[in-house]
Specification:
The structure is a single chain. By secondary structure, the chain is an alpha/beta fold. The chain contains six helices and five strands, in the order E-H-E-H-E-H-E-H-E-H-H. A five-stranded parallel beta sheet has the order 3-2-1-4-5, sandwiched between helices. The longest helix is centred in the middle third of the chain and has 17 residues. The radius of gyration is 15 Å and the shape is globular. The model has no long low-confidence stretch (mean pLDDT 94). Bound molecules: adenosine-5'-diphosphate.
């Protein structure tokens, strides 16, 4: 039978428990998930591309069908290269909706075969974002319950005085 392959794209600067929850749930439904880490030239990330990839690899090592890679260029091209038929995105609140709808509509225009599936956030993480984590951690706030253990350690090391 044909493998069901999905891509889960994002900046992941850094990966949070909200992202991990989406990846874990998607990994139960698809045979292979490519977590694709976008270089994101428009933003200056806190963690370099290779740091972000490593943090995700460590945090998802209990999921044998998850692979972590960098990607640049059009998502539809990347998905085709990976033979993925589905894009997984997480939805937190209505505020995510319009933005996500725009991206999904554009991707559909570029490649009608590529479907976008939305996974509703676990309510525990509905207000969690990487930018919030960076901000709180920069003031030495405790984010240990909101990010994987290795990410918490990496944040502590980044903001160590
Ligand atoms: P981008 O920079 O493309 O928005 P992110 O790395 O911030 O990428 O997010 C990647 C995906 O994870 C997006 O679909 C986003 O909506 C989703 N996401 C981020 N945080 C959460 C969360 N706390 N719960 C559920 N989904 C989330």
């Amino acid at each position: 039978m044909k493998e069901k392959i999905a891509v889960c794209p994002g900046t992941f600067d850094p990966i949070t428990n909200g992202h991990l929850d989406i990846i874990e749930r998607a990994a139960k439904t698809f045979d292979v998930i490519f977590v694709s880490v976008l270089k994101n030239a428009s933003k200056k990330p806190l963690f370099s591309l290779s740091e972000r990839i490593q943090l995700i690899e460590e945090a998802t090592k209990h999921l044998p069908n998850v692979r972590v890679e960098s990607s640049e260029g059009l998502l539809v091209d990347y998905a085709k290269k990976k033979r993925a038929t589905v894009v997984i995105r997480g939805l937190r609140a209505v505020t995510d909706f319009e933005y996500e709808l725009q991206i999904a509509a554009m991707n559909r225009t570029l490649d009608a075969e590529l479907e976008t599936f939305f996974v509703m956030t676990n309510p525990k993480y509905s207000f969690l974002s990487s930018s919030m984590i960076r901000e709180v951690a920069s003031y030495n706030g405790d984010v240990a319950n909101l990010v994987p253990k290795n990410v918490n350690e990496a944040l502590l090391a980044k903001y160590k005085k």
